[in-house]
């Protein structure tokens, strides 16, 4: 059975049809401007999200809700265990 990949429940044929309609409505001259505007809007949304995330993290640190030292210590321990496991399994792997 052949299964086509879909994007938001839209198949390849529908995407091509939508692009055709967009070209017919806006013209090929306006499409780069529209794409640039969408890109700028998405970038502003991403920056705003990162700013909010940074402010929440900063407030949590000031309120001692998040102990970043403990998180860093746990991350270091996990990385060391991961490295040791890779060293151990590296000697056990078979060469093909």
Give an overview of the whole structure.
The chain is built from 3 helices and no strands. The protein has helices at about 10-25, 30-60, 70-90. The chain is elongated, with a radius of gyration of 25 Å. The chain has about 100 residues and is an all-alpha fold. The protein starts with 11 loop residues before the first helix and ends with a helix. About 75% of the residues lie in helices and about 0% in strands.
Key structural traits:
single chain, 96 residues, mainly alpha, 3 helices, 75% helix
List the helices and strands and how they pair.
Blueprint (H helix, E strand, L loop, with lengths): L11 H15 L4 H32 L5 H25 L4
Number of helices: 3
Assess the beta-strand content as a share of residues. Answer: under 5%
- Please state the average pLDDT score: 81
Provide the gyration radius in Å: 25 Å
Q: Which structural class should the secondary elements be placed in?
A: mainly alpha
Number of strands: 0
Largest sheet: none
Task: Estimate percent helicity.
Answer: over 70%
Poorly predicted regions are: none
Inertia-based shape: elongated
Order of helices and strands: HHH
How far apart lie the N and C ends? 32 Å
Query: Which assembly state applies to the chains in this document?
Result: single chain
């Amino acid at each position: 059975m052949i299964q086509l990949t879909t994007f938001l429940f839209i198949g390849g044929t529908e995407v091509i049809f939508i692009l055709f309609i967009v070209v017919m409505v806006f013209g090929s001259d306006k499409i780069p401007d529209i794409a640039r505007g969408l890109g700028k809007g998405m970038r502003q949304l991403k920056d705003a999200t990162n700013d909010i995330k940074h402010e929440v993290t900063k407030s949590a640190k000031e309120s001692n809700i998040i102990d970043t030292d403990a998180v860093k210590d746990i991350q270091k321990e996990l990385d060391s265990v991961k490295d040791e496991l890779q060293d151990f399994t590296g000697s056990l792997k078979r060469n093909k």
